[in-house]
Amino acid sequence: MRLKLRIELVPKTVWFSSLYKLLPRELWDSIRAEHIRTAGAKCEICGSPERPLFLHEVWKYDDEKHVQKLLRFQLLCRKCHWIKHIGLAKIKADRGELDYDELVKHFSKVNQCPKKQKPIYHGKLEDYDGEIRSGMLPLITEVDGVEYLTIAGTKKDLDFDQHVADAFEVWGERSKHKWTQDFGKYEKYIDKKRMKETVKMHHETIKRERQTKLELT
User: Fold this and answer.
1) Fewer Cβ within 10 Å of end Cβ, the chain: N or C?
2) Are 126 and 148 in contact (CB under 8 A)?
3) Which backbone phi and psi does 149 adopt, to 5 degrees?
4) CA separation (Å) from 101 to 47, 89, 98, 160?
């Protein structure tokens, strides 16, 4: 399924080891400036000239060898950038720091998909006399011994919530593995010792924050 704006969740085992965090700041700024010069000062997905523009790292995942390879950079507006990192966006929205509904509308508009999807059919399984065509998404549930059928449409008609759920399913599977990162020509600029220390520090911070939350509940 090809979407113009896709959700891209980085496996938690490679959190905090992006080029943005690992490269010297002056080098990162020069890469961003050069990309703006060549690609134009607008979002490469929706075309918005709204500032600020974020330089996003596009990665390719080899799910057999568990290699995360840097493909290219992409200039994104604020909304498209938050969609890419929808997990963090939801956390900020729950804190009142972000309008989540605004992101849902933006995703649906760019991809021309419904914000909420109405089932093609929902009722008793025995009462359905239509056909279930290839690509449809049927779901059978049982309530008090009665089987019910819900047909949610086709994959191209999936709504925002389903796209998020699918992205988190992939994220959960990828997060089970340790990944080798291929930074391409930027590898030589990375201090591997500093990289390990930075990643370790951030993961320890997350553990402390989670422990604090557990103690407060």
Assistant:
1) C
2) no
3) -115, 130
4) 20, 11, 9, 11
> Domain-by-domain residue ranges, the chain?
12-116+158-216, 118-157
Helix (H, G, I), strand (E, B) or coil at 70: strand
What is the DSSP-derived secondary structure letter of residue 58? Answer: E
Reference 61, options 1, 20, 10; nearest CA is 10
Beta-carbon contacts of residue 13 (< 8 Å; ≥ 6 apart): 174, 175, 177, 178, 179
User: For residue 160, which of 111, 88, 99, 92 has the smallest C-alpha distance?
Assistant: 111
Are residues 98 and 92 in contact, defined by beta-carbon separation less than 8 angstroms? yes
> Do strands 121-124 and 136-143 pair parallel, antiparallel, or not at all (unpaired)?
unpaired
Rounded to 10 degrees, what is the CA torsion of 73, 75, 78, 84?
-30
Q: Is 83 exposed, middle or buried (0-12, 13-18, 19+ CB in 10 A)?
A: buried
Q: Which two tokens stand for residue 46?
A: 């929706």
From first to last of its 217 residues, the chain has per-residue pLDDT tens of 468 999 999 999 898 889 998 898 999 999 999 999 998 999 999 999 999 999 999 999 999 999 999 999 999 999 999 999 999 999 999 999 999 999 999 998 998 876 555 566 778 888 888 877 666 667 787 777 888 887 765 555 567 887 888 899 899 999 999 999 999 999 999 887 777 777 777 667 666 655 665 555 5
